Amino acid sequence: MLDALPPRVAGISDPLDRYFAAARGNADVTPLEMTKWFDTNYHYLVPEISADTQFTLRPDKVLSEIAQAHGAGITARPVVIGPITFLALAKAVDDAPAPITRIDDLIPHYIDLLDRLVDAGVEWVQFDEPALVSDVADGLPELAHSVYSRLSGVSRRPAILVATYFGDAGPALGALARTGIEGVAVDLIEGRVESVAAAPELSSKLVVAGVVDGRNVWRTDLDGALGTLGTLLGSVGDLAVSTSCSTLHVPYSLAPETALRGWLAFASDKFVEVATLSRAVRNGRESEAQSFDASRAALATRETDPRLRDTAVRTRLAAITDADVTRGDASARSSAQAARLGLPPLPTTTIGSYPQTTTIRKARAALRSKAIDRAEYERRMRDEISSVIALQEKIGLDVLVHGEPERNDMVQYFAEQLDGFFATTNGWVQSYGTRCVRPPILFGDVSRPDQMTVDWITYAQSLTDKPLKGMLTGPVTILAWSFVRNDQPLADSANQIALAIRDETVDLEKAGVGIIQVDEPALRELLPLRDADKQAYLDWAVRAFRLSTSGVSDAIQVHTHLCYSEFGEVIGAIAALDADVTSIEAARSSMEVLEDLNAVGFANGVGPGVYDIHSPRVPDANEIQKSLSAALEAVDVQRLWVNPDCGLKTRGTDEVVESLTNMVTAAKAVRASLS
Ligand code: GLN
Ligand code: ZN
Question: How far apart are CA 595 and CA 452, in angstroms?
């Protein structure tokens, strides 16, 4: 909309090709960096702003969508990312100053947009400013005041609603209320109702009160929500009832679900709750007595359900001490592992998954529809494993993996085997582009009734003489990619999951597996948006990971993997995980990550991703060799691992073979140049 595309795609004349090149890359250009949208598992492409970036308004997309809505007889309120959030989430390139310093260049384009929206017959526009609930930049409340004073000061414009969500907007609310905008939306699930009361200027504005949780799946406590709305009635101008944020983050409908239904509300149920609450504000609670009774009854059955409290799990957790979250000295571990594994310098490996082929998906569908039985399914999965092992041996990789064919998803697979989780039938949510995930619902205390991965991993190990890396998902990531219970601290849930994963690592060691990777790609994602809350989170997250990995002996090499996020603020925590080897996405951020890890004193093994697996582009060996040489300037040769930047499950087999072959060639060339 602002034409802020990087110069490397600007020359592509077809607008759709240009758009796709920016998003996905093509044979000639690397795409924009992709990262998580605040603390959700949704992604966005990070705009790159250089000193030369010129903004031009290109409102065609929003205008055509409005025209489409109007054509269908719908009064639409367009939602546009606000200028502060746009710049706060953008990244500076080519030594340009922080993008937020360009705010004055953006304002005229937003003013033009307001004008075009009036032409299009728009009455209200919503500017999303979730950045205002975070500390991503200094002085955001003051900036909000100045930006929205200017936008609301123009005479020809629709009414302006500024939406804040994912947390408490705090002082930004008063700052917004002291401008000429007509309304603000506030998140009253993660934010505090007191913040609204603290902004007396809201008494002349519309306040859209997000009292129904837009991000989690639990049925609303209607009495509680109505109470919150009641406290607002006196202090705001107009009151509207809403969800706390976009329902993009929850599934659509409970209709296909069979379990736990009484406790849950998906998007369509949340809209009903919003409408119910709105009528109850106007006509009194009695007018909606049935809905309120049902909400109360649902809450009551949840509180008393025995699955929510498992005494054995709670007793075990209460007995955890620092010794349970600490492994032996890192250098002693390193020698024990070197002796056991006998790897060459710059060992090559992959992150875990191999392409989820049609054969795999068909087998899974056949199992689900009962066209084949479990035994036949397992036979087919073992075939996949043996072909992935053969492929890796042919390519010449040093540390092999079983390829994860049996996993529909790295979190759901574990959730399905753990007590305390429930997998939905059709609870899909968008992660990025056309990729969707089906987050499990964590509703009770967690325990592991049986081994989860040992058979697959030991089968894979039996097929090769090379060391095989067993693959598990870490407690923080399992938590981040699930809908979590809202009746206990996240840290408690994380530790329960950690114990289950720990039991699995201990069983893998017993079964003779020498390398275990515990993936934590979501470590950054759960980082709180406010600075004051961050350290406490990092402390419990690191402890949960260490609880999950400290049950094995020194000779077991523990790997972890992280990807697709800004590591800056969590770099100290990554080091504190104390994994023996950390593979980390770096292809798009050119080894910066190694220097950051050095700066926090990280001295264990590290595999900066040498190519971007989200792009269909195949990297050539030269290019990989160059990035390895660059990496060797930051870390010494004993520490460097060679791997792609993430798992390969979304890619096609041909491109995987080509890319990995080039990767192995590059590693061999660098090894040769060393000796
Ligand atoms: N082991 C997982 C895989 O390779 C890791 C995926 C991830 O980082 N998201 O698929
Ligand atoms: Zn990854």
Answer: 37
Q: Please report the DSSP string for 25-69 in residue order.
A: --SS-----EEE-TTSS-EEEPPEE-TT------THHHHHHHHHH
Backbone torsions φ then ψ of 432, nearest 5 degrees: -160, 150
How many domains are contained in the chain? 2
Taking only the tens place, the pLDDT of each residue in 346-392 is 999 999 999 999 999 999 999 999 999 999 999 999 999 999 999 99
pLDDT at 259: 82
Q: Which domain holds residue 80?
A: 31-306
Nearest CA owner, ligand 1 atom 3:
647
Q: Assess whether 464 and 421 both reside in one domain.
A: yes
Share of the chain above pLDDT 70, in %: 99
The amino acid occupying position 615 is: S
Tell me the per-residue pLDDT of 145-160, one tens digit each, with 9 for 90 and over.
999 999 999 999 999 9
Question: Is the minimum distance from the CB of 410 to ligand 1 under 6 angstroms?
Answer: yes
- Residue 7 inside a domain? The answer is no
Distance from residue 410's CA to the centre of ligand 1 (Å): 7
Predicted pLDDT of residue 559: 98
Question: How does strand 79-81 pair with strand 43-45?
Answer: unpaired
Collapsed DSSP state (helix, strand, coil) of residue 101: helix
Residue nearest ligand 1's atom 10 by CA: 647
Task: Inform me whether the pLDDT recorded for 112 exceeds 90.
Answer: yes
Please report whether residue 313 resides in a domain: no
Q: Is 626 helix (H, G, I), strand (E, B) or coil?
A: helix
Q: 614 an active-site residue?
A: yes
Alpha helices, H only, 72-192: 83-89, 103-119, 140-152, 171-177
Q: Ligand 1 within 6 A of 646 CB? A: yes
Q: What is the largest CA-CA distance in the chain?
A: 82
Rg (CA), the chain: 26
Place of tokens 């709750």: 273
Q: Is 665 in the pocket of ligand 1 (CB under 6 A)?
A: no
524 close to ligand 1 (CB < 6 Angstrom): no
**340/301 same-domain check:** no
**E strand intervals along 355-480:** 419-422, 429-432, 435-437, 441-447, 469-473
CB crowding 332-363: b at 16 or more within 10 Å, else e: ebbebbeeebebeebbbbbbbbbbbeeebeeb
Dump pLDDT digits (tens) for 604-655: 999 999 998 888 889 999 999 999 999 999 999 999 999 999 999 999 999 9
What's the CATH code of the domain at 265? 3.20.20.210
Measure 350 CA to ligand 2 centroid, in angstroms: 10
